[in-house]
């Protein structure tokens, strides 16, 4: 996979303690993004974090636990951003614009994490997979509720609410695939552009 | 990675001859989708195709050549579909709708191939990478030309033509990530929904 640059900062992982566990998560994101989950060993990850395999084992018993931790933090953060937008007040258009802007910005800034989270979903164990799918359902429900609010108030005209919700989330998530920090658009600029495009998708004729 | 089902048929690879080379390509797509490029060996691929590593070597000298063949066929097919839509006549809206419908349908039907092509772009050798990037630039240019036609004729109202082109392609490509053949929408239905959403993105107020 094409990893142009590592994440600009480690804000996404600031809640993970102790320090050693956080360093391991950051190393795992980089390793999974570069070589894929299945081609990465816990030894590779420990090495990148400047630790021994035994030291890794203190914090994570398996490689899957690391992937689950990454996926869980990423999905919880996404859900929190969408909830914040849904509760931000203003018209449905204001809230939809805010949701798209912050969701896009996150997927641009944390594009390496976003790729790992999206591409390696199938490598999670069954219980972890179920838990992550539930977080995704909740994010979808929050986005859908904003669109439904706009349809109810007459601000939006949408033929297929669940299909449009899916498309809006998909459009935002795919930013993680193509975003290039050396490219000509900043995360904020893409967020603005996408908020406009999504509001066009739902506006009445 | 989550591979719900193998491709419904092998139409995408019908131009690859002889038979043995085609079988190897199909086996490689499945193996790369399941385990990632870096975790797959040419021995795995030969085994899946019911062939010996020596027999594989007659057709493909390296694993990267297989990835290149997959990526090349996929990108050429995408470009051909978009060109066909651009030359299909009718209004710019007709052509944009046709482009989105056929591009979406391809990414839904060949979602396993689509994932491999998109996720493993960074694993191509430098020359092959340059060639594939050029094919992507051409696809982008064809989609942009349809949107520009509509802006010129006054049928479309678009603030940022290149940004909108990028968003439209991204929306269609990401279908390969989330499409599930057991899900409730068919490739045709998603194509219809997306054509409507994209035409909404570009319509004048």
Automatic annotation (TrEMBL), chains A, B:
Coiled coil: none annotated. InterPro entries: Homeodomain-like_sf, HTH-type_TetR-like_transc_reg, HTH_TetR, KstR2_TetR_C, Tet_transcr_reg_TetR-rel_C_sf. Residues 41-60 bind DNA. Keywords: DNA-binding. It comes from the Bacteria. Gene3D superfamilies: Tetracycline Repressor, domain 2 (1.10.357.10). Residues 18-78 form the HTH tetR-type domain. PANTHER family: HTH-TYPE TRANSCRIPTIONAL REGULATOR RUTR, HTH-TYPE TRANSCRIPTIONAL REPRESSOR BDCR. This is TetR/AcrR family transcriptional regulator.
